[in-house]
Amino acid sequence: MSIHDPHLTVRPVRAFSDNYIWLIESPRRPGHVVAVDPGEAAPVLAELEDSGASLAAILLTHHHPDHIGGVPELLRQKGAGTADRISVIGPEDPRIPTLTRTVHDAERLELPDLGLSFETLGVPGHTLSHIAFWGHGALFCGDTLFSAGCGRMFEGTPIQMNASLNKLRALPAVTRVFCGHEYTAANLRFALTVEPSNGAALEYQTSVQRLRAAGEPSLPSTLGLESQVNPFLRCDQPAVARSAEAHAGKRLDGPAEVFGVLRAWKDGFR
Ligand SMILES: [Zn+2]
Asked: How far, in Å, from the CA of 146 to the mean position of ligand 1?
């Protein structure tokens, strides 16, 4: 089982207005899936009904209701009366009441029956207990990293969140990025405000517009692409630092300060 495993099949289930619940197909048990961040039960239940798949486990990245809200109903509908209990795996946090197993930073999560293995990465910033799951060439990063953007900083500091994003950026460039929301088009408008002459971002904007016009998700992205187009992964780039300094009207001392200015700038950006 390689981290570049090209065979991991992941499909999106849309929830609320712009959330994605990702369903990972087990490479070992055909017809069994793992749901990532099921904020809503109904669309997952409909997808399981359509595909005939069985829900084998649930992975949770953080405690926000739009990521965990569907878990009790899924367990009620799919967990009762079956021989295999559905594991619910996520970060240790009293705000996530349904966990059967907790994971922490830099742990290996093995799901041998399903042929799945992930490294769990602590990525504080959006929330303090936020984790990401990385394995089989795929990254499930919840609301920490979005395509061309990043999550709002509800609980962490700029230093923490910048370090979390750097941790993700250090993973292999081929890693496919499965984020929690479809925010790419709006994020690119901000990215191109920060770096108006970023050719990769301009090119990406064209392909995202085409996908969205066809009703397709812009995701997954790749870390290689994100390192070229995502200003929050580019805080060490002179063009991004210059733009943040111009916005702040002062000199900034290093990438974490640049990150803090970009994040606050984006919060007020329309
Ligand atoms: Zn969130």
From this structure: 11
C-beta separation of 115 from 1 below 8 A = yes
The 10s digit of each residue's pLDDT in 181-200 is: 999 999 999 999 999 999 99
Eight-class DSSP state of 251 = -
The rounded Å distance from CA 250 to ligand 1 centre is 31
Buried b vs exposed e over 159-190: b needs ≥16 C-beta within 10 Å? ebbbbbbebbbebeeebbbbbbbbbbebbbeb
Q: What is the value of pTM for the model shown?
A: 0.96
List b or e across 239-267, with b for residues whose CB sees 16 or more CB atoms inside 10 angstroms. ebbebbeeebeeebeebbbbbbbbbebbe
Ligand 1 center to 116 CA (angstroms): 25
